[in-house]
From TrEMBL, chain A:
<dbReference type="InterPro" id="IPR006311">
    <property type="entry name" value="TAT_signal"/>
</dbReference>
<keyword id="KW-0812">Transmembrane</keyword>
<keyword id="KW-0808">Transferase</keyword>
<feature type="transmembrane region" description="Helical">
    <location>
        <begin position="12"/>
        <end position="34"/>
    </location>
</feature>
<comment type="function">
    <text>Responsible for the formation of the pyrimidine heterocycle in the thiamine biosynthesis pathway. Catalyzes the formation of hydroxymethylpyrimidine phosphate (HMP-P) from histidine and pyridoxal phosphate (PLP). The protein uses PLP and the active site histidine to form HMP-P, generating an inactive enzyme. The enzyme can only undergo a single turnover, which suggests it is a suicide enzyme.</text>
</comment>
<comment type="similarity">
    <text>Belongs to the NMT1/THI5 family.</text>
</comment>
<protein>
    <recommendedName>
        <fullName>Thiamine pyrimidine synthase</fullName>
    </recommendedName>
</protein>
<dbReference type="GO" id="GO:0046872">
    <property type="term" value="F:metal ion binding"/>
</dbReference>
<keyword id="KW-1133">Transmembrane helix</keyword>
From TrEMBL, chain B:
<feature type="transmembrane region" description="Helical">
    <location>
        <begin position="186"/>
        <end position="209"/>
    </location>
</feature>
<feature type="domain" description="ABC transmembrane type-1">
    <location>
        <begin position="335"/>
        <end position="514"/>
    </location>
</feature>
<feature type="transmembrane region" description="Helical">
    <location>
        <begin position="284"/>
        <end position="308"/>
    </location>
</feature>
<feature type="transmembrane region" description="Helical">
    <location>
        <begin position="229"/>
        <end position="248"/>
    </location>
</feature>
<feature type="domain" description="ABC transmembrane type-1">
    <location>
        <begin position="64"/>
        <end position="252"/>
    </location>
</feature>
<keyword id="KW-0472">Membrane</keyword>
<feature type="transmembrane region" description="Helical">
    <location>
        <begin position="453"/>
        <end position="476"/>
    </location>
</feature>
<feature type="transmembrane region" description="Helical">
    <location>
        <begin position="75"/>
        <end position="96"/>
    </location>
</feature>
<feature type="transmembrane region" description="Helical">
    <location>
        <begin position="339"/>
        <end position="363"/>
    </location>
</feature>
Length: 339, 532
């Protein structure tokens, strides 16, 4: 009897301690989720495509300088991640606007998502082939006989590059790898399919010199970091969408003037993201030529013209996706730049 | 009865001081080997030396502290919620025995859901914030608590229940007064396994767009080629997992008086002519319950049709009426690629678990050296260990198989170790009197005693192996059904995603049932008391 009572009491204490700790944690989690004090204005969310970094520094500038709050918007920037697709929160209305890419947007539209591309942050596609100087890939022809590390999901991208440049893809050995520079540095592969602004930057910061061949220079014309919104939002929440995009445009124009400051702001605004200032500065500088061009100088940030849309449609066709020019809706940007 | 066999366990333990010395020596050897390996791989950016890890932890102290607090709090919340759910389900099953098979069947189906696909869906459902991390941590723990708890609730002498009945009370009183107390040791065992699992679940949940946490930093560090920080994060995650395992174990021992129960014991196996019919009926009820929850959830939660697929849609996918079987064929092709890894990895993991357990029993001192390394191996997040294992063993099948084996072997080791120690004391005494060779004792007495625990672990490892292979394919090899799910999510191909979820879940549940069928036959021979 005595033993049973002891057992019961100890159990209860143990359970109580665990339970209390757990409830505390749950409360803490709940509180931290709603810690931002409510402000006046319309709550809207912008769904980013990746973790916080200088990749989205134009948005941070817009937030930090109050471009949105002045326009009556209370914008939250939702971080992405390796297992966080952008399209569902935009379809479901959790996010008013999302940062996608032309190929992902086209795929979603083919699946019935009512999306329009309302702005293009990256005029030039950021995909590169990164290699080391003693075994370089300077042009697509150099790929033959090489081992390339990439996600198998990107095979259509490589196929398209090969088709555009008359390269025999069967002469390339595709090694499925995780998205990291390490297979290249450890000699498992000769080159990587990656972005101009991430893995090559990481290698440079770690003291590994690399060579990048921008695929956009070899016919791979595909808008990236595209802003998407649903037809419903464009019809019924038009003012919010215009205000959001106006803030984006102003933010990115500021960004271009001082990328170092933009990188510093990224590091400062997201102390928990583990951002390294030097890395962010290099990344911020490297994405400028991808985002700004003669076209944007003429028409304004985020714009496109009939010619670039036609090129995008051609590239998408090679990727196996069929879209029409209607996918791009310039009316929001016209309103932004006209205002 | 299960409890009756737990008697003589202690004689195995070697003097504690020698154990501790071997343990310290084992850790030192492991650290030195780690340092040497890391230095020999310098320039490959794969492995950081322990000294570099310490420097990275000190340099990034506040950042890592905040991340640890974020991940730790969500893991704890998930741990509590998941275990409360397990306790509630077990209570329901005990108070209303007819529901038990439906409850366990449904619980099995939920634990077999591939998180590569469910994690982004959880983000859609729960929105920004900590929801998905907490949910994944809870999903990672509830099953390993529920199953031992159900065993514990039954591990009650019938006479006690008779007493309740004589007093004119019913099932609820029996549950509260008798069964709940009898189940405490089993609950403790389940909670101990759950503690590290909650932490890893929370980390993977952060991959769906969490603002902060160790998982977020792990992604960042691996992209930035910051090997020192990557391994500092892995070290912290492993240390916290080990600590959680130890602390929950300590609380459990304090609560139960130090007698470890038979964890993961076999379910009571239905016997007699009605068995097949009852099995079919219970399977059907679990499947029906799943479909009701699935379909009802879509309607009640108002999930956008862009993402949501109903059971009818999935039938269409597999019948080929939606797209002429295109998705179905792609799914089966990917599943075949996956099988090449998962089957050998699963078997290798089970074998490694058994062999290490036998080794520890034959040379008890080795426990101090093996166990810390085993817990550490299991605790290092797969996203960090994958590049190293792939580099050491190659990117071919060997690396992937090893990664799966690493995920499977630990629960098997723990269960088998416990099972080997379940050998009846009298049998061991008789063998000792006749000076039987140690290996013969293992073969004749301990391994038969181990079989129930081994099979339970083998059963529970099926979902674990499927989870491991999909994560490995997603993060490391980029092939098979795991990569297909990740690709489908990014290309908005929710037909393929829904089909993959159903297929993977069904395969895992069938694998579980197949191991259960082998178990029934084996136990009928070697442990008939389990098959009563």
């Amino acid at each position: 009897m005595a033993e049973r009572r002891t057992l019961s009491r100890r159990t209860l204490i143990g359970a109580g301690v665990l339970g209390a700790a757990g409830i505390g944690a749950a409360t803490f989690a709940g509180v931290s989720a709603f810690r931002n004090p409510p402000r006046n204005g319309t709550d809207v969310a912008l769904q980013l495509s990746w973790l916080h970094s200088a990749q989205f520094a134009g948005s941070y500038i817009a937030l930090d300088r109050g471009y949105w709050s002045d326009a009556g918007l209370n914008v939250s920037l939702l971080q992405g991640g390796p297992n966080a697709p952008v399209e569902p929160p935009v379809v479901s209305g959790q996010a008013l606007v999302g940062v996608s890419a032309a190929d992902f947007t086209a795929a979603a539209v083919a699946e019935g998502a009512p999306f329009k591309i309302i702005g293009v942050a990256m005029q030039n596609n950021p995909f590169v082939i990164a290699s080391l100087p003693d075994n370089p890939v300077n042009e697509p022809g150099d790929l033959e006989g090489k081992r390339i590390g990439m996600a198998l999901a990107n095979t259509p991208t490589l196929e398209t590059l090969c088709t555009l440049n008359g390269v025999d893809i069967t002469a390339i050995e595709i090694v499925p790898t995780q998205y990291a520079a390490q297979p290249l540095t450890s000699g498992e592969v000769d080159c990587l399919l990656c972005w101009e602004t991430d893995l090559p930057v990481a290698m440079e910061i770690q003291g590994v010199e690399s060579i990048t061949m921008l695929m956009a220079d070899y016919g791979y014309t595909l808008h990236s970091q595209t802003y998407i919104a649903t037809d419903d939002s464009l019809a019924n929440r038009r003012d919010d969408v215009v205000a959001l995009m106006a803030g984006e445009v102003r933010g990115w124009e500021e960004y271009r003037l001082d990328t170092d400051a933009a990188a510093a702001l990224s590091v400062e605004m997201y102390p928990d993201a583990g951002l390294d200032l030097e890395t962010q500065q290099l990344q911020a500088a490297r994405q400028v030529p991808l985002m700004f061009s003669e076209l944007t100088d003429e028409l304004g940030f985020g714009f496109w013209n009939e010619e670039t849309v036609a090129q995008n449609i051609e590239t998408l066709a090679l990727l196996g996706q069929s879209v029409t020019p209607d996918l791009w809706d310039s009316s929001i940007l016209e309103q932004v730049h006209g205002a | 009865m299960i409890v009756a066999v737990t008697a003589s366990i202690r004689p195995l333990a070697a003097p504690a001081r020698r154990d501790a010395a071997v343990g310290v020596a084992g850790v030192v050897v492991a650290l030195v080997a780690w340092e040497v390996l890391a230095r020999s791989l310098e320039g490959a950016f794969v492995l950081a030396a322990p000294t570099a890890v310490v420097v990275a932890i000190v340099d990034n102290g506040p950042l890592l502290g905040r991340a640890l607090a974020a991940t730790g709090s969500t893991a704890l919340a998930g741990f509590v919620i998941g275990n409360l759910a397990a306790v509630a389900l077990a209570g329901l099953a005990a108070a209303w025995p007819r529901s038990q098979r439906t409850v366990t069947g449904l619980a099995l189906i939920v634990v077999c859901l591939p998180l590569v696909a469910t994690a982004p869906l959880l983000r859609v459902l729960l929105g920004p914030g900590d929801g998905p991390q907490i949910a994944l941590a809870a999903l990672a723990v509830y099953y390993t608590t529920l199953i031992p708890l159900l065993v514990g609730l039954r591990a009650v002498p019938d006479t006690w229940l008779d007493l309740v009945r004589v007093a004119g009370r019913g099932a609820v009183t029996a549950l509260v007064v008798v069964r709940a107390r009898a189940s405490v040791p089993y609950l403790a065992a389940g909670l101990q396994i759950a503690a590290p699992a909650a932490f890893l679940g929370a980390m993977v949940g952060e991959f769906t767009g969490a603002e902060r946490g160790l998982g977020v930093l792990t992604i960042r560090a691996s992209r930035d080629l910051d090997v020192d920080l990557t391994w500092a994060l892995a070290t912290i995650a492993a240390a916290v997992s080990m600590l959680a395992y130890a602390i929950v174990g300590m609380i459990g021992r304090a609560a139960t008086g130090g007698q470890p129960p038979t964890i993961l014991a076999a379910p009571r196996i239905a016997a007699g002519p009605g068995r097949v019919r009852r099995t079919l009926a219970s399977t059907a009820s679990a499947v029906v319950a799943t479909i009701v929850l699935w379909w009802g959830g879509i309607i009640l939660l108002g999930i956008t049709p862009f993402v949501a697929r109903t059971p009818l849609d999935v039938v269409g996918i597999f019948a080929g009426t939606r797209d002429g079987g295109l998705t179905r064929d792609a799914l089966f092709a990917a599943l075949c690629d996956t099988a090449v890894y998962v089957v050998p990895g699963y078997i290798a993991g089970l074998a490694a678990g058994v062999l290490l357990a036998v080794l520890i029993v034959l040379a008890p001192g080795a426990s101090g050296a093996i166990m810390p390394v085993a817990v550490a191996l299991r605790s290092v997040p797969i996203v960090t260990s994958a590049p190293l294992i792939v580099l050491l063993l190659g990117r071919g099948s060997l690396g992937a198989i090893t990664l799966i084996a690493v995920m499977v072997f630990f629960p098997t080791l723990v269960a088998c170790l416990h099972g080997l120690r379940q050998a009846p004391g009298q049998v061991l005494d008789v063998m000792a009197v006749y000076a039987t060779a140690p290996w013969r004792v293992v073969v004749r007495a301990r391994i038969p005693a181990m079989l129930p625990a081994f099979f339970a672990a083998a059963r529970m490892s099926v979902p674990a192996a499927v989870l491991a292979v999909t994560v490995v394919e997603w993060l490391a090899t980029g092939t098979g059904i795991g990569a297909l799910m990740a690709r489908s999510a990014s290309l908005s191909n929710y037909d393929a995603l829904a089909g993959a979820v159903v297929l993977v879940t069904a395969v895992a549940a069938l694998g579980y049932a197949a191991v259960g069928a082998i178990e029934t036959r084996m136990l009928a021979r070697y442990a008939p008391e389990q098959a009563s």
